[in-house]
Write a structure and sequence with these properties.
The chain is of the alpha+beta class. Helices cover 43% and strands 17% of the residues. A hairpin with an 8-residue loop joins strand 9 and strand 10. The longest helix has 24 residues.
Length: 467
């Protein structure tokens, strides 16, 4: 039998025990903030029906959905002409009924429709699970990655959007990030821009193009717009809008003049102003001397922000760190009728997502993970012989009963080997039990970082480790 060299698919990763502690630090920090704002956790299956996912992300998004082949001989009933055509698009519906989820928002919309009789609206949920995209792997872009989503459905209030800004601010600050930008725009403003250009039917083409501004620059966007049916005159009108500068208030004032003839564009401006007004009210509260409150210091209105997903209808968000060269680490927006695709119309929703894998890379590069995240075990009890082992086991159970993560070296071994084990696992303390310790009841506790060693009772050791 041939030996296969072990490997994993490109764009996926293994996570070691130490990495999982750090990842869980991110998940726990974000989920704690979600819960603080009243969001409840749910989970949905890894696989969805393919027809649940397709048509929700635009043509480019649909191409990135991982399809799952049907079980059994999935080619046996395919008509010969389809097989001979060698056209994969013709075959997909015949050979694949399921797909790996592309994001958590569309499955959530499906969940809401299926469980609507069991849900109290407005329904606020959060979800932390992996998603899959058939993208080209590169730094910060993976084929399998986790999203940390929060959504609320059944509420038109723009307070939800304002609170999402607060959630981003608080969660990222708690993770140690200091220099990041929360960008906001509104799809209605973009629709208004397409309207005044005279190309409302090309709104999707326009948003897909300008959403790439950071990646390909204005010249690249111009070229793509021309390819998508826009004229040089259209681009001349679009240029000053895309390059709006100044404060958020100045940008809104300029937009109000530009979009004066567009009802939908003005509505988008009004929605942004309402969100800013709510945030001002929250900021008044934030002026109180309370360390648990956060200030909104880095919210930017960005007219080029488009979020290429077709289901957004109102405010849209994107978050970027300015400390590390990285793509967006979060995004979201309002989707007024996503559930309508599944037969439940007029149920508005809005949500955001944290890109946990990119956040991990950012925290790792900036060395922002707390020291405690490198510790899995608080204390190791040495094991020199059977007598010491029997003496140690009741102590081990006592420490665990007090909530202290503890372990015993599983077999008798030389001290150097046991100390190396503790160092390799970043265990900060080791209890050394020899004949003197068993006789007097005073145990030797060694601090692995400082090298300091002291004689303490079991109760004193427990108190020190719990401090």
């Amino acid at each position: 039998m041939a030996v296969i060299k072990p490997s994993i698919p490109k764009g996926t990763r293994d996570f070691s025990a130490s990495e999982m502690v750090k990842r869980n630090h991110i998940f726990n920090t974000i989920s704690a903030v979600f819960k603080k704002y009243g969001y409840q956790e749910i989970q949905t299956p890894t696989m969805e029906n393919l027809n649940t996912l397709t048509g929700k992300y635009g043509d480019e998004g649909d191409k990135l959905i991982f399809k799952v082949l049907n079980s059994g001989d999935y080619l046996s009933n395919i008509p010969a002409d389809k097989l001979e055509s060698r056209n994969s698009q013709l075959l997909i519906s015949e050979i694949s009924e399921k797909a790996l989820r592309y994001d958590l928002t569309v499955p959530f919309a499906r969940y809401v429709v299926m469980h609507r009789n069991d849900i109290s609206f407005p329904f606020k949920r959060f979800q932390i699970q992996p998603v899959w995209r058939a993208d080209r792997p590169q730094k910060g872009r993976y084929r399998e990655f986790y999203q940390c989503d929060a959504d609320v459905v059944g509420s038109k209030s723009l307070i939800n959007e304002a609170e999402f800004v607060l959630i981003y601010q608080e969660a990222l600050s708690k993770l140690g990030l200091k220099d990041f930008t929360i960008k906001i725009n509104n799809r209605k403003i973009l629709s208004g821009i397409a309207e005044i250009i005279g190309k409302p039917e090309l709104i999707i083409d326009m948003t897909v193009a300008i959403d790439k501004l950071d990646k390909i620059g204005f010249d690249g966007v111009t070229k793509e717009l021309i390819e998508r049916g826009f004229t040089s005159s259209d681009i001349k009108t679009l240029n000053p809008i895309i390059n709006l500068s100044g404060s958020n208030e100045e940008k809104l004032n300029n937009l109000r003049s530009v979009l004066a003839s567009s009802e939908i564009g003005l509505k988008g401006i009004s929605e942004i102003e309402t969100i800013f007004c709510y945030l001002d009210k929250f900021s008044i509260l934030n002026s109180q001397p309370d360390s648990n409150r956060v200030s909104i210091l880095n919210l930017e209105l960005d007219i080029t922000l488009a979020r290429g997903l077709n289901y957004y209808t109102g405010a849209i968000f994107e978050v970027k760190t300015n400390e590390v060269a990285m793509g967006s680490i979060g995004g979201g927006g309002r989707y007024d009728d996503l559930t309508g695709m599944f037969g439940l119309s007029n149920l508005t929703g809005v949500g955001i997502s944290f890109g946990a894998d990119r956040i991990y890379d950012v925290l790792e590069e900036l060395k922002l993970f707390p020291q405690s995240t490198s510790e899995s075990t608080k204390v190791l009890i040495s094991n020199f012989d059977q007598k010491a082992e029997k003496f140690a086991l009741p102590l081990l159970q006592t420490l665990r009963d007090k909530g202290i993560s503890a372990e015993i070296y599983p077999s008798s071994a030389k001290l150097k080997k046991q100390m190396t084990y503790a160092d390799d696992k970043n265990i900060p303390y080791v209890i050394l039990i020899g004949s003197d310790e068993m006789e007097t009841g005073l145990l030797s506790l060694k601090n692995m970082k400082s090298g300091e060693q002291q004689k303490l009772t079991a109760e004193e050791i427990a108190s020190l480790l719990l401090a």
